């Protein structure tokens, strides 16, 4: 899976209340060129009463956003540091994977750590829970861990995480069905709808099984809106990503996309491809009109897929490896600043990291992970970001 399925990736959602788009999607067999009902493209802005009801329904998450906003404003403008408080943590439960995707950076990690026993891993999850109520479990392929069902159940019901997302390639979900009763959401990595059995370690080869498991997930989770289809855009699959976008709309899944990297840098050649630019326009326009559920806002999507400038605050979405190692300031830079089981808290580890490595450097253009792009808008334009999500 690696970083790129998150949002990485990862895939992180701000919990601002959004009006619902209840669309009746046309089945694939009856698909027409314009499958979005015309009425869905002419939605009125939510009324003040609807916004107030949404705020009440989402009160714990709204409170969290405001609390973090003021804490981080203090850090940025009074303490003059870019080391901000965490919003959600990405936890790598394993480095192992049963596929070998071309763009994955986790196949042979430069920094490696051993998996902890089940109870010690849950103890680690409790340490993380003291500083955030949101966690993203990833890998490697997390369903390869023999105890992944125990870990997800421990995270949700023992540690009491309010938001628990699991990122997976979807091939083994039927073997670990208890996961789907514990997580609040599922992120499934999928890069094409055309099956290709020629490379058994590729996602196209596993497509039939993934589609079968998506049906299972939809049934057990109770809503397709709790499933995000995360796709990585490369030159070869631009047309397939467009098909995935339409298909997600038909199925009711949330669509998420980001581009692959070439040696830790974005593939800027994509910007010269008219088909890629048209695809990005289509994604942004559908998100702007509320035609289907799409991760992000029009501005965050444009920055992510058109490689716009952004100021990264990676400690907002810190990354923890299987043994509890914590990266500073971010996983792509491969610098470990401490271990949660030894040092006790992210706050302490980030403080030590700043002493050892200095403040967070300006490094636009290295990763273009969704969480890092989101952190820019969260810190620099909180009110605009909130308005974008509400709209």
Overall shape: globular
Gyration radius from CA atoms, angstroms: 20 Å
Order of the strands making up the biggest sheet: 6-5-4-3-2-1-9
Provide the β-strand percentage band: 5-15%
Global structural class? alpha/beta
Number of helices, where a helix is a run of at least 4 consecutive DSSP H or I residues: 13
Write down how many β-strands occur, each being a DSSP E stretch of 2 or more residues.
11
Termini distance?
32 Å
- SSE pattern, N- to C-terminal: HHEHEHEHEHEHEEEHHEEEHHHH
Low-confidence stretches: 1-44
Biggest sheet features: 7 strands, parallel
How much is the average pLDDT?
Answer: 84
Helical content band: 25-40%
Explain what you see.
The protein has 391 residues and is of the alpha/beta class. 38% of the residues lie in helices and 12% in strands. The protein has 13 helices and 11 strands. The protein has helices at residues 48-57, 59-77, 118-129, 148-158, 179-182, 203-221, 238-251, 274-289, 298-305, 340-343, 346-357, 370-380, 382-390; strands at residues 89-92, 134-138, 163-168, 185-189, 227-233, 254-259, 261-262, 265-266, 319-320, 325-327, 336-339. Strands 6-5-4-3-2-1-9 form a 7-stranded parallel beta sheet. Strands 7-8 form a two-stranded antiparallel sheet. The chain has a two-stranded antiparallel sheet with strand order 10-11. α9 packs across α12. The longest helix has 19 residues, at 59-77. The relative contact order is 0.16.
């Amino acid at each position: 899976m690696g970083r790129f399925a998150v949002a990485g990736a990862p895939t992180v959602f701000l919990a601002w209340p959004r009006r619902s788009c209840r669309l009746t999607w046309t089945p694939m067999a009856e698909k027409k060129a314009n499958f979005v009902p015309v009425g869905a493209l002419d939605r009125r802005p939510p009324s003040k009463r609807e916004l107030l009801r949404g705020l009440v329904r989402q009160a714990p998450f709204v409170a969290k956003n405001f609390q973090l906003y003021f804490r981080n404003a203090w850090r940025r403008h009074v303490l003059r540091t870019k080391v901000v408080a965490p919003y959600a943590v990405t936890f790598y439960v394993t480095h192992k994977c049963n596929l070998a995707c071309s763009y994955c950076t986790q196949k042979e990690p430069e920094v490696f750590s051993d998996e902890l026993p089940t109870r010690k891993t849950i103890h680690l999850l409790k340490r993380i829970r003291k500083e955030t109520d949101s966690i993203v479990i990833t890998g490697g392929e997390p369903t390869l861990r023999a105890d992944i069902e125990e870990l997800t159940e421990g995270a949700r019901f023992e540690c009491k995480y309010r938001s628990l997302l699991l990122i997976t390639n979807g091939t083994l979900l039927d073997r670990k069905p208890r996961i789907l009763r514990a997580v609040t959401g599922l992120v499934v990595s999928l890069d094409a709808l055309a099956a290709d059995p020629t490379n058994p370690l590729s996602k196209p080869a596993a497509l039939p099984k993934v589609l079968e498991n998506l049906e299972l997930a939809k049934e057990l989770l109770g809503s397709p809106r709790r499933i995000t289809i995360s796709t990585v855009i490369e030159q070869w699959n631009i047309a397939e990503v467009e098909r995935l976008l339409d298909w997600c709309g038909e199925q009711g899944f949330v669509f998420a996309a980001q581009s692959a990297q070439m040696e830790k840098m974005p593939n800027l050649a994509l910007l010269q491809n008219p088909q890629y630019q048209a695809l990005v326009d289509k994604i942004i326009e559908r998100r702007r009109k509320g035609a289907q559920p799409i991760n992000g806002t029009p501005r965050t999507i444009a920055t992510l897929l058109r490689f716009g400038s952004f100021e990264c605050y990676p400690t907002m979405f810190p990354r923890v490896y299987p043994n509890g190692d914590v990266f500073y300031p971010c996983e792509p830079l491969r610098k470990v600043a401490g271990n949660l089981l030894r040092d006790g808290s992210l706050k302490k580890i980030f403080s030590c990291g700043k002493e050892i490595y200095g403040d967070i450097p300006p490094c636009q253009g290295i990763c273009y992970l969704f969480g890092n792009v989101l952190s820019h808008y969260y810190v620099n334009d909180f009110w605009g970001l909130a308005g974008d999500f509400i709209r």
